[in-house]
């Protein structure tokens, strides 16, 4: 029997991309899965609970966590997959609203969800939090200073929370993906199809394995951290096709 059988998991950004793949993978292991997203879910989402929630709004989050816990039981697995990556903008041209949105969703939003679920995890005797970082948590990227800063911050958030709760049964880790075949990556491409293909080829060539990753490959790392990695906390698992090995 899976260690996740009948455990309650919350996945943010669950309507698409890595979040959707993670929610589906957790369900396949027998978990009760709730998904939240600021975007609408597909009618066939198949989740136990799917709620339209903005992770930058603490009040919405508290209400969502209460509803999920009341209906599915205490949340003991959290996968923070919600993320945005608007750009490119040179640093001095970065609009205030783009900076606020990017840091608000990627970093503050991740903290907001952690803060909302940790009391329930403590009451339940422990849990596992997996934050989604990026290879850009570790390296710079021209034109994406807000994204890089926010994802680097996720590593600090993870390490500090891991130390706060290491003796209380809550593990906190980060998965750092390379470029993954997701709607977020697709939205970052130029509108012109020839330019878009050139950019995709360039991105592919940054990965020694010769391709972009698939959402389910990131979900597999999340599953391991959620269920089997009992001695792993405060760590980052890089799943990037060799991107950061260069």
Automatic annotation (TrEMBL):
Query: Which spans are transmembrane here?
Result: none
By its UniProt entry, which InterPro entries does this protein fall under?
A: NAD(P)-bd_dom_sf (IPR036291), Sc_DH/Rdtase_CS (IPR020904), SDR_fam (IPR002347)
**What Gene3D superfamilies would the database entry show?**
NAD(P)-binding Rossmann-like Domain (3.40.50.720)
Annotated Gene Ontology MF terms?
oxidoreductase activity, acting on the CH-OH group of donors, NAD or NADP as acceptor
Pfam families xrefs: adh_short_C2
Q: Give the UniProt family note.
A: Belongs to the short-chain dehydrogenases/reductases (SDR) family.
Q: What is this protein called?
A: Unannotated protein
Q: Which organism is it from?
A: freshwater metagenome
């Amino acid at each position: 029997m899976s260690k996740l059988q009948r455990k309650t998991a919350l996945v943010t950004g669950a309507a698409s991309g890595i979040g959707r793949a993670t929610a589906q993978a957790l369900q396949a292991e027998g978990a009760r899965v709730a998904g939240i997203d600021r975007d609408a879910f597909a009618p066939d989402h198949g989740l136990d609970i799917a709620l339209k929630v903005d992770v930058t709004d603490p009040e919405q989050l508290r209400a969502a966590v209460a509803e999920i816990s009341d209906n599915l039981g205490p949340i003991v697995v959290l996968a923070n997959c919600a993320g945005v990556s608007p750009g490119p903008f040179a640093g001095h041209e970065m609009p205030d609203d783009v900076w606020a949105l990017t840091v608000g969703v990627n970093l503050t939003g991740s903290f907001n969800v952690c803060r909302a679920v940790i009391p329930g995890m403590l009451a339940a005797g422990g849990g596992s939090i997996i934050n989604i970082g990026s290879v850009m948590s570790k390296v710079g990227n021209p034109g994406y200073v807000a994204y890089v800063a926010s994802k680097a911050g996720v590593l600090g958030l993870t390490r500090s929370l891991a130390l706060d709760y290491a003796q209380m049964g809550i593990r906190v880790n980060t998965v750092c993906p390379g470029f993954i075949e997701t709607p977020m990556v697709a939205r970052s491409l130029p509108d012109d199809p020839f330019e878009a293909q050139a950019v995709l080829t360039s991105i592919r060539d940054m990965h020694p394995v010769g391709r972009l990753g698939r959402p389910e490959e990131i979900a597999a790392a999340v599953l391991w951290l959620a269920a089997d990695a009992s001695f792993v906390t405060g760590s980052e698992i890089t799943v990037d096709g060799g991107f950061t090995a260069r």
